[in-house]
Automatic annotation (TrEMBL):
Pfam families: Stn1
TM annotation in the entry: none
Lineage of producing organism: Eukaryota, Fungi, Dikarya, Ascomycota, Saccharomycotina
Gene3D superfamilies: 2.40.50.1040
Organism: Babjeviella inositovora NRRL Y-12698
Localization terms from the record: Chromosome, Telomere
Record domain CST complex subunit Stn1 N-terminal: where: 41-200
Assigned keywords, A-Z: Chromosome, Telomere
Name of the featured protein: CST complex subunit Stn1 N-terminal domain-containing protein
Length: 477
């Protein structure tokens, strides 16, 4: 896929999502206003237009697409197309059966428009009615088929999911292939070559009320009110005049207003308690955070290494992991949408930004002594595994009671820790250490982990590990 470089992420117009020097990508709610969408037909496309289409996730983001159906659009030029028709010859096929006993036929389709093939996922209930053989695979290669459906993305690869399959020619039907090429080219020249331009309607407020002439008595009344306002002394405002002062004055003037705490105390009637349970008055303040932060991405990398427990691994294996790749992609999109990666005038692709962020995190771990990478991108994660094992051992010692009376400063602990094998100083950011500790206490289910609490160590102003037995949980330190 081609990843267009964002040029204008905030054009100041609600109907525009992204503006580049050559075309404009409009908001999601305007997809149905596209001229091709109004035709209500399956758009005949070349395979080249699909595999080289713009990355719709990179333009709109995961949060900008409201449903899974929105993500199945293919962006040709700036035309969002959902209903697509492709045709070509079968050059390869593979049958696969899932755990739910569902059978799929994966077909490689070629229409001579580019050097790439299009992978099509066809169900068995569509394959057999089309007259295609299910047992003898050799007779299906070279057959020309026509598919109607939508484009989906699976594991960062384009995959066509049809809703109808039809055989339109055999191996020697060259005239059928040429007719389809002319049809696709005519449709492309008529609708898709030029970018779609949307003009928002220019509306003006029109009043339906009849025009009432101004009477002399009304004019006299307005003049009297104006004279009254001008003759009134100017009231000096309070220097702390604000919305807070306004609400405070309202409470002073209306002392009979029942506070939330008093209302909760008065709900002793059984019927009221049944209708309004007390838990419904408790609200948690959820902070506004990024969809995927850098700390979460680092934690995903650490979790992958610890769960694999492989001291040596190729770096590309970590880069292509499904969980790490999803968080890396989401974090990169968030950074791009907030214009935090590069100035708008630079030329850089989306894949290059992905690799840049990934290698920055790898470099940070490598500088901290947690990873070692060779020139062939083979990584050695022994220090990181030993570091996390040391954290786990420390938590077990605290929970077992051997370190009950001691407060361990997390920052000083991470700085002073040295790997026993490598004799090298290992450093990790405190916020990442907090996340690793939370993961160890939660997912690994350490014994007596519920007795471990976090507390603010007042003498040093830092976070510390505190062990509090059950009888002393209420005692403030």
């Amino acid at each position: 896929m081609n990843h267009p470089l964002p040029r204008d992420l905030a054009p100041g117009e609600d109907h525009i999502q992204l503006r580049t020097p050559t075309r404009t990508y409009y908001a999601v709610f305007l997809f149905d206003e596209n001229p091709v969408a109004k035709l209500n037909v399956y758009a005949p496309l070349f395979i080249r237009d699909i595999v080289h289409s713009a990355d719709i996730i990179g333009i709109y983001g995961f949060l900008g697409l409201h449903s899974q159906a929105r993500a199945n659009y293919v962006m040709v030029n700036n035309h969002p197309l959902l209903r697509v028709r492709v045709s070509g010859r079968i050059v390869g096929e593979t049958i696969r059966e899932t755990e739910k006993q569902e059978c799929f036929i994966y077909v490689l389709l070629d229409d001579s428009s580019c050097l790439l093939y299009l992978t099509c996922k066809i169900t068995k209930r569509l394959w057999l009615p089309a007259g295609l053989p299910f047992d003898n695979w050799k007779t299906s290669r070279g057959t020309m088929i026509e598919l109607e459906g939508s484009v989906a993305t699976f594991n960062r690869r384009i995959e066509f999911q049809p809703v109808s399959v039809k055989v339109i020619g055999g191996r020697t039907d060259l005239d059928v292939e040429m007719r389809l090429i002319r049809e696709k080219h005519a449709f492309r020249q008529r609708y898709l070559v030029k970018p779609w331009v949307y003009e928002p309607p220019q509306t003006t407020a029109v009043s339906n009320h009849p025009v009432v002439p101004l009477m002399q008595k009304d004019c006299v009344g307005k003049q009297a009110r104006r004279d009254l306002i001008e003759s009134t002394e100017t009231v000096q405002g309070s220097p702390e005049d604000s919305l807070y002062v306004h609400h405070r004055n309202i409470k002073r003037r209306n002392p009979d207003i029942i506070k939330a705490s008093e209302l909760l105390a008065n709900l002793e009637d059984e019927v009221m308690v049944a209708l309004f349970p007390r838990t419904s008055f408790v609200f948690e303040q959820i902070p506004l955070v990024a969809p995927v932060t850098e700390v979460k991405l680092k934690l995903a990398v650490i979790k992958w290494i610890i769960r694999k427990h492989s001291y040596k691994f190729p770096l590309k294996q970590l880069y292509h992991d499904r969980s790490v790749a999803a968080k890396l992609r989401n974090f990169t999109i968030w950074q791009m949408q907030n214009n935090r990666l590069h100035p708008p005038e630079t030329t850089v692709t989306f894949d290059r930004l992905l690799a840049r962020i990934f290698h920055d995190i790898r470099h940070e771990f490598q500088v901290g002594g947690l990873l070692k990478c060779s020139s062939s991108y083979n990584c050695y994660a022994g220090p990181m595994i030993e570091y996390v094992d040391q954290l786990k051992m420390t938590l077990l010692l605290i929970s077992s009671g051997e370190l009950c009376e001691r407060k361990l400063d997390c920052v000083e602990y991470t700085r002073a820790y040295r790997s026993l094998r490598e004799k090298q100083e290992v450093d990790m950011a405190p916020e990442v250490v907090y996340g690793v500790i939370g993961w160890l206490l939660g997912d690994l289910a350490l014994e007596y982990a519920y007795l471990l609490t976090w507390d603010f160590w007042r003498p040093y102003g830092r976070r510390a590990w505190i062990f509090q037995p059950e009888e002393t949980l209420d005692v403030s330190l």
